[in-house]
């Protein structure tokens, strides 16, 4: 690898990131695309949230994007959606709405950066007719029991006695597992004690019901349907994860794409969607070592479904700084140091090209960045800097993303310190 040649190319092509106006080059790159996928190199970096918010605001205001879909649970995100659209019975403040994120890792969405976004969305929606209001939704698969509770609550209010009875019969199957996905997964995978048939039947019923409803109750019915879809795929996810790590990953990302598709269908044939998720989800898996492991992700699947010309994927990264993470699953959050990126990695080459924040538009036909494999740092909710070498994903950068936002020195986001509940 010719590192100095790559550094020279970065110096020539990268643009400064200094203010919201700096993002206009990315807005221009969107053109008439319907999907913009915004990544992050960690779930605990303030700048990633800040710049995604600024980009999302511009996409909503200037390009007519209709909703933000995030790597978060549907029930908690829908509580935020109800708040920003000022539905009857919604929470009275953004912080109260964000208290719905009470399951570890709470800081991913219960933080001051997201609170600022939520307050802006509510202000933007104020006075607009329902069809012009911007939504906020969750795509993830983990909320099996929370989704079950939301379905039952919805059917108790809006459903028929027969539908409510069907739901309760389906959910009785899960009651003995004490809200522990792994307990259920072991029983289903090794002992054949699956609840899938009952939940799939319920999902079909809820989808048919939404199709028949008028516009007034359509979003509430959509929420029930997405909760049921989550329950179907969560059942599959937990059943699979005890035996097949790669396949459980695929189930999760395929679920996120299925949820995204139902959201775009709901918003109409010309719907425009913004997705917030980790780089490992939005950056095309085919440009990483995930391909050899038989893994897919959101970025790959959305590109394949809609064509690369209709999708813009933006990755994020940092050279060094601080981050909110935990030392093990379920452990208390902490502010941790992110050491300088390893020599020869994508982040280190960007730093070598100049210690300042930058935007880089990428071309998959680039003779180096479109073909050369570089280490690219990924930090999860669990982070141990002592094992830093294992945090680098082999990546062909210009094939993984269409653009990249680089923060030379980043800072930990500001959690709201919602009560932590483990799963």
CATH superfamily of the largest domain: EreA-like (biosynthetic domain)
**Class from secondary-structure proportions:** alpha/beta
- CATH topology of the largest domain, by name, is EreA/ChaN-like  fold
Encode the helix/strand succession as letters.
Answer: HEHEHEHHHEHHHHHHEHHEEHEEEHE
**How many helix segments?**
16
Shape field: globular
Low-confidence stretches: 183-193
CATH class of the largest domain: Alpha Beta
Sheet having the most strands: 9 strands, mixed
Using the CA coordinates, give the radius of gyration: 21 Å
Helical amount = 40-55%
Mean pLDDT: 88
Number of domains: 2
Question: How many distinct beta strands?
Answer: 11
Describe, in plain words, how this protein is organized in 3D.
With 423 residues, this protein is α/β, with parallel strands linked by helices. The chain has 2 domains: 304 residues, EreA-like (biosynthetic domain) (EreA/ChaN-like  fold, 3-Layer(aba) Sandwich), CATH 3.40.1660.10; 100 residues, no CATH class. Strands 1, 2, 3, 4, 5, 6, 7, 8 and 11 form a 9-stranded mixed beta sheet that branches. The protein has a two-stranded antiparallel sheet with strand order 9-10. The longest helix has 24 residues. About 3% of the residues have low confidence.
